[in-house]
Design brief:
Residues 7-243 form the ABC transporter domain. The protein is of the alpha/beta class. It is built from nine helices and twelve strands. The protein is globular and about 55 Å long.
Length: 257
């Protein structure tokens, strides 16, 4: 019997005032797989990430972790389960160094004093598992390239050894070389068994990296795809709504979800 998904959403709804932003969302994130979350602007992608991360709890629906029902009502709930999020703005402090950013709010102390040596050792150890392209752990983060800052943000999210990682447009502002570095990093995380939810508008990145894709349109599921077999045209049609009249349940079955 196959293992249940790390995270599963069933019939999840989210409303802001009188506006229902998400309606009856179904989603599964599996260990060691990259799930691309696609959709046009306003489709509900960022709201769904906030629901999963506990920033904006769902109003209706069920959430399961490894097959058992759980409640995610605040960010601490998500973190305690093993869910980490890297938002598009990265939320880094540019004036702090790499070590300071990684341990901000969870500093290591020894005899009541900051243990800078241990924090730097752990930072170096973590970055070596991801990449060797961050040249100076003690220089201000603002001096790093966009790709290096993205690496720092991902490294910070991995301090708690999460099992699910949510990435909101991680390559949106990056050049080709920096994008390649970030995609390689995500690929290594998948190899370590992490389940990754990747929000992206770049179908090239999706085809190169993701195992499966879920499309949102106007706050609803509008297609599930095996990235290895689905054509780019099929995915684009789902994003734009050209396939809205096709039975969604059939797409769900064909993808093996």
């Amino acid at each position: 019997m196959p293992a249940p998904p790390l995270l599963a959403l069933h019939g999840v709804c989210k409303r802001f005032g009188v506006v229902e932003v998400l309606t009856d969302i179904e989603l599964e994130i599996h260990a060691g797989q990259v799930l691309a979350l696609l959709g046009d602007n306003g489709a509900g992608k960022s709201t769904l990430v906030k629901v999963i991360s506990g920033v904006a709890p769902a109003d209706k629906g069920a959430i399961e972790w490894e097959g058992r029902p759980v409640s995610i009502r605040r960010p601490h709930d998500a973190r305690d389960l093993g869910i980490a999020t890297v938002y598009q703005d990265l939320a880094l402090c540019g004036n702090l160094d790499v070590v300071g950013n990684l341990f901000l709010g969870r500093e290591i102390r020894r005899f009541g004093l900051l243990d800078e040596v241990e924090m730097e050792r752990r930072t170096q150890q973590l970055l070596e598992r991801l990449t060797r392209r961050v040249p100076d752990l003690r220089g201000p983060v603002v001096s790093l390239s966009s790709g290096q800052r993205q690496t720092v943000a991902i490294a910070r999210s991995l301090l708690g050894e999460p099992r699910v990682l949510l990435l909101d447009e991680p390559t949106a502002a990056l050049g080709f070389e920096q994008t390649t570095e970030v995609l390689d990093l995500v690929d290594r995380l998948r190899d370590r068994g992490v389940g990754v939810l990747l929000i992206s508008h770049n179908l090239g990145d999706v085809k190169a990296l993701a195992d499966r894709a879920a499309v949102l349109r106007l706050g609803r599921n509008n297609g599930f795809f095996d990235v290895n077999t689905a054509s780019q045209e099929q995915i684009i049609s789902s994003i734009t709504g050209a396939t809205e009249n096709e039975p969604r349940r059939a797409a769900h079955r064909e993808s093996g979800w």
